[in-house]
Design a protein that fits this description.
Length: 450
C-alpha cells in the first residue's frame, strides 16, 4: 500500500497497472503554511519510490525550511536579507519586499524546478507574512514569464484578528485574477489564474476535533494541520490518477485538465467510500442517490458553496469493485448524469467509471464555481467584527494612568553627607562575609584611568 510519510494511506488504485499521473503539476510553497502543504505533495511517491511532483519551497525563515520532511534540499530557497532572516513576522508587506529583493534567484529557481510541468500550483497559508505578502506577486510572475497555466491553493486562518485582516487583503487581490486575461508578446491571450482551491482552517479544525472525539482511525496521532495537508494532497493526487485508469466510460486526463481544472473557478472536492454490502442499498435508486449526494455532504476542504447558482462545471468519477461492474452499467450512469443535471441545471457534467480491487465503491466529485465558500464570502464581516471586539476591549482596559497627589508626606532628611558615589564590590549580591574579603583585596576606583 502506498502512503504519504508512511502515515496517510492512498487508495490502492493509484498503483494498479496503467495508473499514472494525468496532468504534470508542479507545486510552489510560500511561507510556513504553504511549505507544509507542498511537503505533503512531495511525500507522494510511486511504487518505485520516485517523487510524483516537482516541488519548490520559498520562505524567509530558515528554521521552517529545515523542518520540511520530503522536499529536496536543493529546492528549498531562503529569501536573504538582514531584515528578513528571522521571518516576516505576520507582516505581508515585509514578505512582499523579501520576495522582490530576491527576485533574480527566485525566478532562476522557478525556471529550473518547474520547466517540465504542465501547470504550476502556487500554495500559501493566508494570514501570515511571507506567503500572504508574496502569493500575488509569484502568481503574476509565473503566469507572465513562465508561460504555464497557474493554479492556487490557499488556506483561510482560524479566527484571529491580525491573520483575518491579512487574509482578507490578500484574497481581495487574488480572486479577481480568475477573470483577468492578459496578452503575451505574440498577442496570445491567457487567464492569469486558472483556479483556486480554498482550505478553511476553521472548518478543518472543528472537523478534526470531532473526529478525534469519535475515535476515528483516520486522524489518530495527527495534528489538525497535518490532517488538512494530507487531505488536500491525497484527493488532488487521486483525482489526477483516476482519470488515467482503463475504462469504457472515461473522464480522461485532458477533460479533467481543460474542462474542470482550467475553468477560472473556485474548485471544491468531495470523496465518499460506499459499502456495497450495506443493507441500506436495497435498490438501484438507493445507489444512485448515495452517489449523487456525495458532492453535497462530503466536501473535504470548505463548506457553504452555492452549487445551484455558482457552478461552472462538474465532474464525477466512480471507482467500482471489479466483480460488481454490473451494478453500475451505462444505463445507471446515465440516470446519475440526469439527476445531477436536474440539480445543477445548465451545468456541463463530465463523468467516468473505473474499476479496482476492493469491496467498496469510491466516488470522487469536483466542481468549479464562480463563487466563494461561505466563510470566504463573509471574511470581511468576520474581520470587522474581530476588529470591533478588539476596540471594545481596549476601551474597557484600565490603562496605566496614576492620577492625583498624595494628601501629606512625612519629610525625612539623611544625616549622612554624601561625598561621592559608593564604590560597589565586584559582586554586590555576594554574602556579607564574601564582601568583606573582597573589599580588603579590591583596589580603589579611579574614574580617570583608562
Amino acid at each position: 500500500m502506498l502512503t504519504i510519510d508512511n502515515v496517510w494511506q492512498l487508495e490502492n488504485f493509484v498503483k494498479q497497472k496503467g495508473a499514472t499521473i494525468g496532468t504534470k503539476l508542479g507545486f510552489v510553497g510560500l511561507g510556513q503554511g504553504g511549505g507544509k502543504i507542498v511537503d505533503a505533495f512531495a511525500g507522494i511517491r510511486n511504487a518505485n519510490g520516485n517523487a510524483q511532483y516537482p516541488v519548490l519551497c520559498i520562505n524567509t525563515n530558515m528554521g521552517d525550511i529545515q523542518n520540511l520532511q520530503n522536499v529536496d534540499r536543493a529546492n528549498r530557497l531562503q529569501l536573504k536579507g538582514e531584515e528578513f532572516e528571522k521571518g516576516a513576522g505576520m507582516d505581508p508587506a515585509k514578505g512582499k519586499k523579501a520576495m522582490a529583493a530576491n527576485g533574480e534567484i527566485v525566478f532562476e529557481t522557478l525556471n529550473r524546478v518547474m520547466h517540465n510541468t504542465e501547470a504550476i500550483v502556487v500554495v500559501a497559508s493566508l494570514g501570515g507574512g511571507t506567503g500572504t505578502g508574496s502569493i500575488n506577486m509569484v502568481i503574476d510572475v509565473c503566469a507572465d514569464y513562465l508561460g504555464k497555466p497557474v493554479m492556487a491553493i490557499v488556506s483561510l486562518p482560524n479566527s484571529h484578528v491580525d491573520e483575518n485582516v491579512n487574509a482578507f487583503e490578500a484574497l481581495k487581490e487574488l480572486v479577481p485574477k480568475l477573470e483577468e486575461y492578459r496578452e503575451d508578446g505574440e498577442g496570445n491571450s491567457y487567464r492569469v489564474l486558472e483556479n483556486i482551491v480554498i482550505l478553511d482552517n476553521k472548518k478543518i479544525i472543528e472537523e478534526h476535533i470531532e473526529a478525534v472525539e469519535q475515535g476515528s482511525t483516520e486522524v489518530a496521532n495527527l495534528s489538525w494541520d497535518r490532517y488538512s495537508n494530507y487531505k488536500v494532497a491525497s484527493i488532488l493526487h487521486e483525482w489526477n490518477v483516476v482519470t488515467t485508469l482503463e475504462s469504457d466510460k472515461t473522464l480522461d486526463a485532458e477533460d479533467f485538465k481543460n474542462k474542470l481544472l482550467f475553468t477560472g473557478g473556485v474548485l471544491t472536492f468531495a470523496k465518499k467510500k460506499i459499502n456495497l454490502q450495506s443493507g441500506d442499498l436495497k435498490s438501484e435508486n438507493d445507489l444512485i442517490n448515495e452517489i449523487v449526494a456525495t458532492y453535497r455532504e462530503r466536501n473535504v476542504l470548505a463548506n457553504g458553496f452555492d452549487y445551484k447558482n455558482d457552478a461552472i462545471a462538474f465532474g464525477i468519477n466512480i471507482v467500482m469493485p471489479k466483480n460488481t461492474e454490473k451494478l453500475l452499467n451505462k444505463d445507471t450512469l446515465e440516470k446519475i448524469n440526469r439527476q445531477l443535471q436536474e440539480e445543477l441545471e445548465g451545468v456541463p457534467v463530465y463523468y467516468g467509471r473505473s474499476t479496482w480491487d476492493s469491496k467498496h465503491a469510491l466516488v470522487y466529485t469536483i466542481c468549479s464555481l464562480r463563487g466563494l465558500p461561505e466563510r470566504a464570502k463573509n471574511l470581511k464581516q468576520e474581520s470587522e467584527e474581530l476588529l470591533a471586539k478588539q476596540k471594545e476591549r481596549e476601551a474597557r482596559q484600565s490603562g496605566f494612568a496614576i492620577d492625583g497627589d498624595l494628601s501629606s508626606r512625612q519629610e525625612r532628611t539623611s544625616t549622612r553627607v554624601r561625598t561621592g558615589r559608593a564604590a560597589a564590590p565586584a559582586n554586590p549580591f555576594a554574602t556579607t562575609e564574601e564582601k568583606q574579603v573582597e573589599t580588603k583585596s579590591a583596589k580603589k576606583f579611579n574614574p580617570f584611568k583608562e
